[in-house]
Amino acid sequence: LLLRAGLALLAWPVYLLSFLGIWEPFCRKVFFPFFLEKISGAHDKKSKKYKQELFRNLPDFRGPSGELRLLEIGTGSGSNFQFYPAGCRVTCSDINPNFQEGLSRNMKKNQHLHYEQFLVAAGEDLRQVPSGSVDAVVCTLVLCSVHSVSSTLREVLRVLRPGGAFYFLEHVAAEHSSWTYFWQQVCYPTWKLVFAGCCLTRELWKNLEEAKFSELKIQHISVAIPWMPIEPHIVGYGVK
């Protein structure tokens, strides 16, 4: 509690702006898109080999038409586009519409894809996407900040066709006996405020195990970024 208070004291300008109702709109429009683009670059360098392996079998989930229809939840600036197979038809969605600059830049870099549309939508409410209409759903570094993980996974299963797959790579809570978990607990309140609702201590593998996937592959990995308490990750996919 003492360390939490000390961290809150260091971040007092953010708490003040939050109290005045200024921080959230500033964070959504300016700070978080800027920060996420920077952290995505560092994270992609550390996680590239895991993403290459994760998305290697995406072509196996092409639909009966031979096309791969993919929905990405929390697309952000589109750092995953480079890992998708040529000809993939991508629908982008994000609750925050302020990533357009980085998103446009990554679209231009990855013209091997067909971009269908951009939806402003929360992961818990994908009503704009018809049921059973996509072959794959991708979600990376997003489940940490949705309001309800279980509702998001229900929506994932709804929009997937039978036999479709949900791909994920997420940071999660560390082992409870570890120093990493101790620092996650210390940072949790201030981190969540500063970084747009990101939760450090979610045990997301439990939510995935409780969801109704017919097949689920989960691997616990380590993606270390200096001065970031988000080293423990899970990566894998579930089949509907």
Automatic annotation (TrEMBL):
Keyword list, A-Z: Membrane, Transmembrane, Transmembrane helix
Residues that span the membrane, as ranges: 6-23
UniProt cross-references to InterPro entries, sorted A to Z: Methyltransf_11, SAM-dependent_MTases_sf, Thiol_S-MT
RNA-binding found in the keyword field: no
GO molecular function: S-adenosylmethionine-dependent methyltransferase activity
A Pfam entry, by short name: Methyltransf_11
Residue span(s) of domain Methyltransferase type: 71-168
Source taxon at top rank: Eukaryota
Protein's name in the database: MET7A protein
Higher taxonomy: Eukaryota, Metazoa, Chordata, Craniata, Vertebrata
